[in-house]
Amino acid sequence: MENENLLCLLRIKDTEVSLTLEPTTLSWTYNKRWAFKKKSNTVFIPVNEIVTIHHGDGKGQAKKISTPSNQFTVYHVHRKSSQRWSLKVVTFTAPDAHVAHSWVQAVQKEMIETGQARPNKLLVFINPYGGYGKASEIYYSQVSHLFQLAGIESHVIETSRANHARDYLMEADLRTYDGVVCVGGDGMFSELLHGLVSRTQNDSGVCEDKEDAKLMPCNLRIGIIPAGSTDCVCFATMGSNDPVTSALHIIIGDTQPLDVCASYHGGQLMRYSVSLIGYGFFGDVLKDSENMRWVGPMRYDLAGFKTVLSKRSYRGTVEFQEANDSYSNPRDNTRCRTGCLVCSESSERLQEVAEECPTNGDSDTWKKVTGSFLAINITGMSSACPKSQDGLSPTAHLADGTADLILVQNSSLVEFVRFLSRHTNRKDQFALSNVEVHRIRAMRFTPEELDEEEAIRRQKRFLVCPCGSPSATSTWNCDGEILDCTRLSVRVHHQLIQLFARGIEDTSCI
Asked: Locate the DAGKc domain: which residues (predicted)?
């Protein structure tokens, strides 16, 4: 852009402003005569948060401008609150059409050179039945016009059955897409996760059933437009389950790597997960809720209340490979946020460990705990959601190659309720005598086989138990899906997928 264009005055409505474009920032300063009307004399917009820039005033954007205009419009991200974004529209009036054209070209050039890989074409899956059944309405009323504004081509598929999206990803030609997007809840995200990871391994010739196999990372990013009943993955990676916020993260090309846990049984891959793998309480809640589907999302609350009263405990042995990492631990009160150093430097640390221990690739030690457990939870992220702002493990990291193992030993009903309540009142849920937490890279669980005497005793208890059968074993809850096994092995795969996200922003730094 010519220097005279950089120095000229523009107008926003009737207010004179001086517009400045730098490599990473677009800013404008209000004329001193108008400054008293503004909270701040200068407005700064990161170039990588500009959605698009167009000629004209933006009102007739659908119409093709036939004559040169001395106006141009900037569409950019605006923070409505701590984690919620919206689209802000600002129209500038230049002295003439040539100056306006020069500004549009200059801003577009800087947007390209920011280094963010913005998507041009997306494969979008909509689950019209999940959550509250509003996925289609959310996409077409709040999201699709944003994609069109940003010039993103979208191929939309409404799923008609379970695993529709997963099966499509396994067979389709994905080379023309820059990412895949799910409009739905955590179940819909899980379908895309399994489809992309399995497709990547198939194309790479990697056997998924081998526990020691090094899985290949997925190239396509996954976007999440939340439309479910919990939206745990979206909430834990962006701090919000707002569809517009998610759409804007996708448009500007944010990238957040994510660890994935793989669960195995009997030499066979069972499922992939990114949030919860739970045995005991969360397994029982999921299993009991399956008989209450007619209630809708409220079934989880009803099943949870019933499971708390039953206070079932299960004996077994947990073996886990604890991460000997001096950079973080589950009790350090350090939250994983945008630009997290623990995650960004984890690849280098893991490479150093692999070079030091070439035989097994890891020097972390295995430990063993045997007991009677009310809950065994493994989470690769905080697993925060609107009902639990801090989640199962508040300091869990998204992409450091570890997961947090939470063991809740058998205790009184009062102690167990105290533990559960701390997920909602932000008190330290690990500061209890019957709870322990470990940062791990792998885990094995072996249930205890009951002798005949104990089996008879439990059967007698069933006759007086008002909350259901005191089964000898529980069920594994893997991101909302029941695993049909009890003995289980879990391994964390470092940064296996990437999301259109940037992690939760530290609002104190914004």
From this structure: 117-267
